[in-house]
Amino acid sequence: MSTHAPALARHRVLRFWPIAFGIAFGAFVAYDLASGADLAPVLTASGLVYLGAAALQRPRAAWPVFWLSFVVIGAANFTPWEDAPTWVLLGIAAAFALYGLVRGLIRPFEVLPLQSLAMVLFGGAAVAVLLIGGDVAAYLVAAGLLGHAAWDAWHHRTGRVVVRSMAEFCLFLDVIAAVAMIAVTVNG
């Protein structure tokens, strides 16, 4: 056995952890899905993570913003308001956007302005999911997550706004959650 084998194995684990974590988290999110509204907070959080990193001008901030959104979704689910996670995440997104604007982060366009526009689209789709309900909402949230997966791929390729590990993680999470939403809707 080569003396380099443990280092190679460690390198492979470190290289692929975002993908493995994205698959595992996607399975966690997909577990026990019932309707499109179940994933509206996930769609909102997907835009929030990128907007937060852009507003803070720190690609590595994407991970703490992700964990913040995870805690908010978990905590808000203990409230009597069914749609609370989505609305709280939208409020946090508005605060990040305002913070970025106060700091004068209007250039380059692909950072705060583009991430704000994406947050409006993903957040708007999440709100529409809450208002519409039914199968249409399920397909809308799935389309939104697949759209965000494309967003993840573009950011991974360009290396902008968020660290690549977040883009990889989100790509797999988004695709798995979207496919699960479609499967639940078709089989429901």
Q: Could you characterize the architecture of this molecule?
A:
There is one protein chain. The protein is mainly α and 188 residues long. It is built from seven helices and no strands. Helix 3 (62-76) packs antiparallel against helix 4 (84-102) and helix 4 packs antiparallel against helix 5. The mean pLDDT is 90.
Keywords for this entry:
mainly alpha, globular, 7 helices, 188 residues, single chain
Enumerate how many helices there are, as a single number. Answer: 7
The level of helicity is: over 70%
Task: Decide which structural class fits the backbone.
Answer: mainly alpha
Query: How many angstroms does the end-to-end distance come to?
Result: 52 Å
Note the main sheet: none
How many strands appear in the DSSP assignment?
Answer: 0
In N-to-C order, the SSE pattern is HHHHHHH
The stretches of 5 or more residues where confidence is low (pLDDT under 50) are none
Concise description?
The chain has 188 residues and is an all-alpha fold.
Q: What is the strand and helix layout of this fold?
A:
Layout: H1 5-30, H2 40-56, H3 62-76, H4 84-102, H5 112-132, H6 134-158, H7 164-187
